[in-house]
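Pasting two entries for a bug report.
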Amino acid sequence: MKTFGTHNYYVYILTNHNKSVLYIGVTNDLKRRLIEHNENTNNNKEFKFTTKYNCTYLIYWERFQWIDQAIAREKQIKGWVRKKKEELITSFNPSWKFLNENIVDSSATLRMTGKEIP
């Protein structure tokens, strides 16, 4: 997922099957992080928000080159009301399709279809 000399940081939004709960996170490896969220839920290893609410479905992500940009964006989105978060998700993913398979099966999908922030 990383190209030599580049940095990849992702702000992402997960939801549950009913799309009633939103979880916002940041990572430097979106594929690995999605697998970890899924493993935590399946194994119920420890209490975490995503485990409690079964938030394992990726519905939104943005790529950043610098971690400070990603963290600032994560905090910004977390501060929004639910309606504004829903508008952001819908602008990126109008049908709120679960994107996990796209990311886990092909890292190239990130560069081709994602919202990249320089």
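Entry 2 (this is the one that rendered wrong in the viewer):
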Amino acid sequence: MKRWTTTLTILLACLAAATAIAGQESKDRRHELKSFLDLNRTHGPAFSSRSPLIGSRSLFEGFEGGAIPAGWTAGVTNPSRTWSVSDATSTGALEGGYCAYVGYDLTNFQDETISFVQTIDVSAGSSVLSFWMAGSRSDSWSGNVAETVEVDGVIVFDFDGATAAQYAWEKFFVDLGAYDGQTVTISFRYRGVDGDLHVLDAVTVDDGTGYDVPLPPPAPANDLCAGAIDLQEQSLTVFELDLCLYADDYSPGVYGASCTGWGAGGSDATYKIHLGQGDSFTVCEAPTAEYIDLSLYAVTDCADAQATCLAGDDSGNPECISFVAPASGWYYLIVDAYSGCGRVTVTIDSPVANENESWGSVKAIYR
């Protein structure tokens, strides 16, 4: 039984509506839904019906009717776990007293959509789709499902790639300008099995006036191997990084054939070390705080990781690898995740002595 110590808000109401359905199932969650509220308090401004006026609004849907709205279509494959609307009566940080949600099913596949048809007319002020969304981002179940937005069946937004938050309402934007003059179907899709709760509110199509549409922050330099951080140069023996700042660029290969035994679809960061022939290298990684399903491997060619992988581990936290350099040269360490992202602590247990470099005190660098 989870303990609620804060005043009920619409976020909790949306969660409670979905988890009441799933509450009889004994899934061991490593997060508590209370974190949804705690994070939301510190994650950006709350939505309000008194937001700045916009120049033109073609559609606004806050799900205040208490059911899937008229004009919207539900695509249902799992009737017991499909899109619905909460029956909460309290108002909170978001618009109105209702939101749309979809709960998880432990064993049965879900491919659930809610869709609406929209004519895009840029000159008339219909060019930007915006919506508020929240859900699981960095726990072990987030990788089991995909939460996307589609226009005429083509994915234009992927929740996992767009957020670094865990159960915190965020506002997202999709540029619809490319569909000017077309009538399109816009769909919110939840697809997979044994995932986690997902919520949606305040869906708007307008001209974007009054909103500062945020650009994604640039990825760190060591997002790619071309910018890999030199472990010796930085004297790094123990360091922490946030994989949520990185993109998914690399994988140890395909399931069963990779040096970890698995693929890796989560975010990844790159480091490098110059080793002499016969030098040994040992390194471990583990989640800094909440659970993340990690992957760790070392390669000589990032563009062909599966073929050049020397050692890899995806056996369960912590992951550790050790190898002896077959030749003198650069070796690349990929700190990766099987799915999702989060904060990771990396420990180099047996740093290699190098007559030209010092493994002294850890230098503080921004990443």
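Dev reply: Rendering is fixed now. As a check, the viewer should reflect this: Helices lie at 10-22, 34-42, 159-162, 305-308.
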